[in-house]
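call fold(seq) -> tokens
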Amino acid sequence: MPNYRERMCRLFLQFYLLILFFSHNNCQNANAFSHHSFHMEEVTIPQIQSEFQAGRLNSTSLVQFYLHHIKKLNPQLHAVIEVNPDALLLAEKADAGRVSAGGVLLGSLHGIPVLVKDNIASKDKLNTTAGSFALLGSKVPRDAGVVSKLRKAGAIILGKASLSEWANFRSFNAPDGWSGREGQPKNPYVFTTDVCGSSTGSAVGVSANMVAVSLGTETDGSILCPSSLNSVVGIKPTVGLTSRAGVIPISHTQDTVGPICRTVTDAVYLLDEIVGYDVYDHKATRSAAQFIPKGGYKQFLKTGGLQGKRLGIVRNPNLSPASAVAISFEKHLATMRKKGATLVENHIFSNFLNLGGDAEEIVLGYEFKHDLKIYLSGLLQSPVRTLADIISFNKQHPKEEKLSEYGQERFLQSQNTSGLKAQPYKKALKIDRMLTKTGIEKVLKSYKLHALVSMNLQISSVLAIAGYPGISVPAGYDTKGVPFGIIFGGGRGSETTLIEIAYAFEQATKVRKVPSLSTQRNY
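ret:
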């Protein structure tokens, strides 16, 4: 056994080597920022890991870069509610772990900063509030299931992204993205246009290069819509493929958690790390686990992924053929044909999307009150414990929560529901399930389609009601510079096919442009 002096010498040597490593890498990183061969804007996970491996970049410098961009841009964009005060410490630990392990990584996200939407719990110094002052100071019992998986993969939780307050389920009148705690986010391309919600900050933060990658949540359109309008990639997974445990809920029938990133590749890297079984979301994650491919989703990043695919075209009948969106759609359809896809067109693809009436809204209203009570009861500490408490809080703090401007009608409607055994709920849920079987399932099967394709949000609601996956990919910009996306949607568990299609489309078109406000390369 080595004596005390030998042990001290070894500890001193290890400490000295770490100092040399960080000093060397910080110099390397300073040079990397200024070299044209490697810029931090638009950098992808594979590129970051390659730079880590080569010793030209470390997590500390990467986090410093993003913290700088947040400080610079967030006063305008309002994409980030809170920055993790331990972000730099976590980055230093990631760097030290990389050195001590001889370059062996915890996972594909080792040392990668991630923003998570502020309705996804993290048991650290960050709040989890759904953007509302009502939950400020609440204490969660544990990390959300997806956050726990991120940490195991080596990711650094950089902070909490802003969102439409209560995931856009408080009011019918509040603008997309607004929350009491952060205010109104802005679209990084055109400040005066819509940012869409509710995963607004997750999309804006990634698009404006305030972070590498982010997580959002969707009940209906909340990943696909902000991704589309902020020119980024969003994957809405099959319900249950990712755990909802520790996520402030709206609906156990429709809620899902997914990546929002700048590229399909990054989104798939993130998806690979957050899917899978979670004991705290036992039923849903166990059921969906059958769809997770052996070897993960990265193997489906194929440039020839459109070859042999049958795609059903879903058109917006109200869209002018002369609009930039319509012209781009036709151009992209031609590209898909050229890349080997068979495009199938039938008016029924658009007609069935309008079925269902008010059934979805009824289901969400009943489930929100029920599911929220379960979430709030599990908190270690909370100023509110029921939906009634939150309604009362808003009345007591009308200025902070802009109650007179935006109201809380959805809260009040949900509060008036009478439980999941009530006949109106059962009837509405039955209608939604029938819509799934007579709508999207029937169409996919009858026409032997691999996926549906539409511009912007034509198919988002039917995918939401069914609990089926969709991917939004940047598709263009209108005459004012406002982005729009193309959405590919498929049947339950069809992520592998959708990834092939989305990646092949992205590589064939490469539409995304960097917002002009985030192009300063050095600091």
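The longest helix spans residues 4-34.
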